[in-house]
Amino acid sequence: MAQPMEQSIHRDPALFYWILFPITVVMILTGVLRHYATVLLASTPKKLELPALREQRSLLRGINLRNNAHSISPAAFATRKNYMITAYKEGAFLKDPGNRGKAAPNPMTDPAAMEGMMGMMKGNMAMMVPQTLIMSWINAFFAGFVIMKLPFPLTLRFKSMLQSGVMTRDLDVRWVSSLSWYFLNLFGLQSVFIFILGNENAASQTAQQMSQMSPGGAGGGGTMFQPGQDPDKIFQSEAENLEVLEHEYILMGVEERVLSSILLMG
Question: What is the pTM of this model?
């Protein structure tokens, strides 16, 4: 059976030095600058008052109980479950019990919420402005270049991702265009940034987006509750989650299981 002919393209070796290498270096330097710009623009987080801190930690305690219920005995789980459900339903953990049942305040009138929104806006600006400039730079000088070939086979689904800006139908999917190399660097340099800046860095676009979406991230102002959310409704929802949870203790009948495994090995 005849082997399919491997597609080859004669490329100028200078493409590595004038396109691939500069794009990689610029992306790394941009990530480092973004990290330090984010650090300079970040405002000092304010310390939470004791009632607000208790309100957030109480919700986190219920979530941890639900996620790790299999690690405690049925009696210990039942005691904690009954205590948390009763406290959630009675509003014992609310920082403002007098506002229970009232409409959530407008986040635009809350100074803490406004500060969180400003922090999110600063982070988005530090992320969007450099990427827009780099994208324009690549489109202006490096559009349409095929700069490298991957050493492993890929399916046709990767063609649109690896050959952006190259309008060819018959080109092998393993060839990578300059614009696609930019996108690969955009989402694939996290390990390099961790090596240079450490684990807690703001250089990666993906990591920064995840931190803003997660509770306590940059966009949340260091809180478990997003602006406009009613803590009482969240507590009621968590109480329902605990009520319907079916408890299974992982050490239930462990003696019989160990003895049976020993007998089978013997």
Answer: 0.60
